[in-house]
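Troubleshooting: if your tokenizer reports a length mismatch, compare your output against this known-good record of 218 residues.
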Amino acid sequence: MIKEGYQKAIHFFLSSTPEIAVKVGITRLKCDKIVILEHGDYKFDTKVISDLISTEIITLPAEQNQISQVITNRMNQETKQIYINLTNNYTGPELFILYLCFLSYINSFNFGFPYVVINEKINIIPIHPLLQPIETSVDFLVALKKAGGNVNSFSDLAELVDDIENNVKGIAKTSYFIRKLAKQNYVNVQKNGRKMKVKLTSLGEFIIEIWRERPINE
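Known-good structure output:
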């Protein structure tokens, strides 16, 4: 049963989030549950949280490539609205991964929003247009990852992707998907003489983890 004045929603934040930012978020949004994502040496003092709120603490793994899986798996257990407090004095991969996992979540389920607290006011963060790549698009990202993150031409990339032949038709298909991925900032494309060099971005790497949720065999 939800406490009076609270809504059925869940509130995520990192343990390094400033206490005042957490207090503002909890007071204004009044979610009935919070999840504290502990990382590194950061410990959050749960005394600042109302005893009316259900609290869960999850310790994030030290390995960066496992963080997104832990967060995404936890988010996917929820069927209610999710808020995420990104107010943070700590700059590191955890915050970036947390944001990306949240984007993945809301683009799948279409509810919730990220925010930061500035001058004790909630400021909604504009949502990056994270578009779910279709299976073939992800195949190109995975191929780039296996190739060390970059290739010197569309032709080179076509050779690495299953079901894509290194011929005129295959290269045209490769070009089509790579240009779409470039618009989403999952890859960078630069001229390399008469060819086009393709490089996987950090966002593209995280997309592989978020959408595929399986290791890349080196």
